[in-house]
Structures are given as structure tokens and as C-alpha cells.
Amino acid sequence: MDRDPILLTPGPLTTTLRTKLAMLKDWGSWDTDFIAVTASVRQRLLDIVHGADSHVLVPLQGSGTFSVEAAVATVVPRDGHVLVMDNGAYCKRAARLTQLMGRRATVVPQAEEEPVSAGEMEKRLLADPSITHVVLIHCETGTGVLNPLPEMAAVCQRLGKGLIVDAMSSFGALPIDAREVRFDALVAASGKCLEGVPGMGFVFLRKAILDGCAGNSQSLAMDLHDQHVYMEKTGQWRFTPPTHVLVALSEAITQFEEEGGRVARLARYTDNCRVLVDGMAALGFRPLLRPEVQAPIIVTFHAPAHPAYEFRRFYEAAKARGFILYPGKLTQVETFRVGCIGAIGANEMRQAVAAVADSLAEMGIPDGRPAG
Amino acid sequence: MDRDPILLTPGPLTTTLRTKLAMLKDWGSWDTDFIAVTASVRQRLLDIVHGADSHVLVPLQGSGTFSVEAAVATVVPRDGHVLVMDNGAYCKRAARLTQLMGRRATVVPQAEEEPVSAGEMEKRLLADPSITHVVLIHCETGTGVLNPLPEMAAVCQRLGKGLIVDAMSSFGALPIDAREVRFDALVAASGKCLEGVPGMGFVFLRKAILDGCAGNSQSLAMDLHDQHVYMEKTGQWRFTPPTHVLVALSEAITQFEEEGGRVARLARYTDNCRVLVDGMAALGFRPLLRPEVQAPIIVTFHAPAHPAYEFRRFYEAAKARGFILYPGKLTQVETFRVGCIGAIGANEMRQAVAAVADSLAEMGIPDGRPAG
């Protein structure tokens, strides 16, 4: 019973053995071999969004949230004013870190089960011309809802507002094309749809705004402009890089390319999501979101109405069967979440559904039907 | 010729295969198994400094510098005033990040080849009562000099000043006992003397000051108080942890304990340093520092005076022989550095000296004698 459980979580997620094996070597961070890995990762990440002409790629130590904070700290001037159309937990987090660093932020509460409306955002921008930037969560992992990046980016461009995109859980799977969608900063991380291990984030910064970012950040560690300038000059990271995490990401990107890139990855995740949702529906479970707004990244399900249901027991039962589920993140409704991403396919999703069915049976719950 | 080079660098450094093998598994960050690893690492780190009664241990994503910045941001109030007795590159970095975040910092330049004087520091503290905190680099990796932590801590305690210690390259090897030396915060990282892989830091915070730290940090990601409160409540990290890096650190700590803990590790590094310095001296090389102030962590050598010497060529020649050296970090004198830490012993140090001898011969340099 030593098989590792499959992580149905939105990062850390299940990675291939090949990715993990890349970590069995130590690298000198100053050495040319490691500098070459950094350069190659930066170039290949730019290629994924067709951003080589318009953007630079700045990697950063830490979790994805560190990179979100760094993007806001670097891109938004100290007297800037950020708008967050808030439809979930990661929107709230982005607003909080913006306010904490002393930047003004206006937060507009939205329904969590629906995408943000670009039209509604436009009204807000027109009503308050002091707003300089919009922060947008592409796929709100709190629920799994997909926000309309192209439409929102078009509004920002037309009105001359900066746009910072948290694409943490969408980058590498959902379409993002820097030639068609204008963003000042776009943030993602190693341990999400690229299927690397967690430990670093990265930010695409638009070349046209780069010089203007100097001196914005009050944090040394999170100053992406400084990190960029140093890296361009030396090829090195300013401070000790997570060497093993970076080489694992490099190996993961190679497999991403071999699989057929973003289109193939999205196709696999879409298939994973369909198998999951169909299988769970057959057990009576109902997803929180309408199918049209559901990104194939993570699915929020209503908890079963049956009185014997308790998330902790359900989680342990599924874990005993080899699958790690994810708790819900909503305050109003009881839910749980199941990720569709990672080095897994339709087989694993079918087995996951079977494990859920078994777990319900063990708990004496006839089906997954929610209340109401 | 596929043997991995040995890293004679102050982190990332050479780790054991056993440490790296711990990374061949994916972990759910929310799962109880991972929560147990986090708890165990925190406890065992506290044990190393005998700090369980007096301190808490807060891990943080990112490089060691992230944790230094987080310690200052969390411990020093916004109207605080920091004193840095500056005898090296890491002192300057600590002062810079303090000023950047808007805290007042007074920097007193000191000779780089000598330890900071506790008496001189005391004079400065008495002359300016507005100073609230001292930031001290225990082992200045810029040169390798050891600063007098116990003496400086005693002065800070007597005068009622807070003390933040950057023990990045000393923790786990040089003696630090929280029962005898009072510090408000002490910072180290995974990829140094504990011989883990890089990707996370950690900070010991004194329990007595913990409550007073709430709300100090203007950075969400670097708020160690917030990280601590959340971790105490849930056992989890606030944001995605570097799961593979943490389990590698846990495995590295187990080997540290098996080796005989801090005392045994210091003995091995001291032996490494002696073999290195003696071997290099036989080749004519001269260390920058007097032996009495040289920490057995990293040794700075004067560059050879011979006109054929060029660091880049010397580095490549040593690398071709399997050893990664480290550049100097002084502006006035030409130097290079050689680390004594990592999963290496006297054999590797002897081989390194032999590789240096070969490299000199290849470059047509008769010996390592410096100018003057």
C-alpha cells in the first residue's frame, strides 16, 4: 500500500517521476550551467504566451502569492489606485496585500458563482478616474470560475488602465496570448498547470512599462525591476534561487512541450474535468458553477445533504483509497473541491470517482445529492 | 565524466543523495502527513538552539534574504530605528532592505577583515537612544568573518535594544544557545549548514515580543506574525509551501541528528577548513582573515599575484576537475572564496586543493602567492 496518493488539489499537484528525478543533482547558483537553465526557462515561458516581443519574464523565489505581491509592488506606483472586482478568495487576498503595502485599493464585491463582468468593471473605471490599475484573477481557484481576461484587458487598454493578471492556476492550460491581450503583469508559478514542484513564481512584465517600475517597490526581495536588471546583467538571480525547483520546472516544461504544449494540456484537463463532473453527477453530486463558467482546473461540488456527511471523514476515506481531495473555500455554502490538473488523465479521474463512491458507501451515504 | 561537481559554495551546497531522494514524492500541503512534517521540522529546529521555551519557529517560503527582510518587517515597528555595524556585503543588504521598507537605519562602516566590536556598538547605542534594534550578521559570508554574537547580544539585552541575527551561514554549525544569548529574531535557511536544498528560510521569534509584532509588516507575504498565527491554528503554511524543499530539509535534519548534531557538524567543518587552509598555504595562497576571526564556513583567499591569473579561467579549470569555487565579494582587493560546508569531508577538501594545484599548473602559474 505504498503507492503515493494522487493529488486532486490545485497545486502542489501530482508531478511525473521524470520531473522529480531532475532534482537529484545539486547546482551552483553562480555557475554557467545553472545560468543556462534559468535563461532557457525564461525563454520557454515567454514562448508559451507568445510574449518574447512584448514582455520580459522575471522569476521569483517563494510561492505564487509572493509573485502576486511582487507584481503589485513593482508595477503600481506608490500613489496608484487598484480596482479589484472581487468574486473570490484570491481576489480578496490580492486586495489585502495591495492595501497592506500602502497602495489604495477599491474592492467591488461580486457574486462568487459568476465571472466578473467586463461591462461592470468599465462602469467602475469610468466612475472613478483615479483608478490606475486593475488586478484580475484569471481562474478564481476559490470556486473554479473563469474570469473574462480578453474582454477585461480590452477595456483596460481602451481606458488606459494598467492590468495585473493573477494567472496562477490557468497559465499553461487556458489560452493567454500576449499578442492579442495586453497586460502589464501576468503572474503564475512553478507548481500549477506546468506541473512542476512548488517553490517559485514568475511574472511577465510588459517591456513598455518596465523602466517606469524602477523604485516602486518598498520591498527589496520583491522588487521585480531590480531582479530583472540584475538578471539581465549577470544571468543570475539576485538572491539564492531554489535550484532544484528550477531544474524540475525546466524538465516539466520539456514534457509540456513534448505533450503538445498548451493546447494539448488544455485538452487533457478538459477531458479530466468532463470525466470527473459526469462521474460525480452519476453519484448525485452537483457542481457549484454553471458549466459555461467552469474552468477545467478545479471543480467545486456541493456537499451531500445526508446527515452522515462530514468533510473530514469523507477526505480520510478518499485518502485511504489513494486520492487527496481539497476543502471548499466558501463561507455561505458547504462545498469541497476536486482538482483536474497535474500529471493525471482520464483513468485517474475515473478511479477518483470510484474512490468517492466507495467512500460514500463506507460512510453510509446513498448518494451525493446536495440540499435543496 | 558524469560525476556531479562538488560545490565549494556557501549554499546552494552539496547535499547527500539521501536528502535529494526525499524529493521523489508529491505532498498535499493541506494533508495531515505534510502538516506533521512541518511540525516536526519546526520542533527540531527549535531544539538545535535550545529555544523551545523562549522562541517559536516560523518557516517562510523563498531564499534566506526573504526571511531576513521578513524578520525586520515583522519585528521592527514602523517608527523603529535599526543600527547596523557594517563589516560586509550582507550587512549592507540588511541595511538596504530596512531603509527600503521605510524603517530608519543607521549604518556604521567597519573594517571588513575584522569582527564588529561589541564595545563600539555599545557606544553607538548610548550616543543615540532613538535606536530600537540592532541587526547583526553572525558569519559575514562576504569575507567569512565571525561576529561576536554573545557579546553583542549581552549589550543589547543590557540596554534594552531588540536584536535581529542573520545566522544564515552559521546556524547548525556555530554555537547558538537561546538559553544564554537573547535575540528577538534569528534567521537561517534550508540550504546552508543543515545541508538541505535551497528554497525556504526560517526565523526564530522570541515569544515575549510576538504579540507586539502584530501589524508591523507592510508585506502580506513576509508577515511572520501572520504566518505564525495561521500555522498555530491550522498546522499549515498560509500560502503554498515548497513541499519538496521542506521534506528534503526534514531528511537533512535527521542526518544532522545522526551525525551528532551541531557539535559534530562544527567539528567536520572545522576539519574541512583546516585541511583547506593548510593545503592552500602549501601552494602559497594566503587567506584574507586572521585565523582567530575566521569562521570555518567560507574562506576568502587573496588572488595570486601572477599576471596569468584570471578568476574566470581559474574557476573553469577547477570546475573541469570537479570543484565549483566562489567569486570574491570585496571591492578593494581581488579575492576568491572557497566554502567548507555541505556534505563533504576532509577527502573532498584535499582533492579540492589538488584540483587548485592542477589548475594553477595548467595556467602556468607557479604558486598562489598574492601581491605584497
In short:
The structure is a homodimer. Chain A is α/β, with parallel strands linked by helices and about 375 residues long.
Structure explained in plain terms:
Two copies of one chain form a homodimer. With 372 residues, the first copy, chain A, is of the alpha/beta class. Chain A has two domains: 6-11 and 261-363, Aspartate Aminotransferase, domain 1 (Alpha-Beta Complex); 18-258, Aspartate Aminotransferase, domain 2. Chain A is 40% helix and 16% strand. Chain A contains twelve helices and 14 strands. The first copy, chain A, has helices spanning 17-21, 32-48, 64-75, 89-100, 118-127, 149-159, 207-210, 224-234, 243-259, 261-282, 311-320, 346-362; strands at residues 6-7, 55-61, 81-86, 104-109, 133-137, 139-140, 145-146, 162-166, 185-189, 200-206, 298-302, 323-324, 326-327, 335-339. Chain A has a seven-stranded mixed β-sheet with strand order 2-10-9-8-5-3-4, sandwiched between helices. In chain A, helix 4 (89-100) links the parallel strand 3 (81-86) and strand 4 (104-109). In chain A, helix 5 runs parallel beside helix 6 (149-159) and helix 10 (261-282) runs parallel beside helix 12 (346-362). The longest helix of chain A has 22 residues, at 261-282. The first copy, chain A, is globular. Chain A starts with 5 loop residues before the first strand and ends in a 10-residue tail after the last helix. The mean pLDDT of chain A is 97.
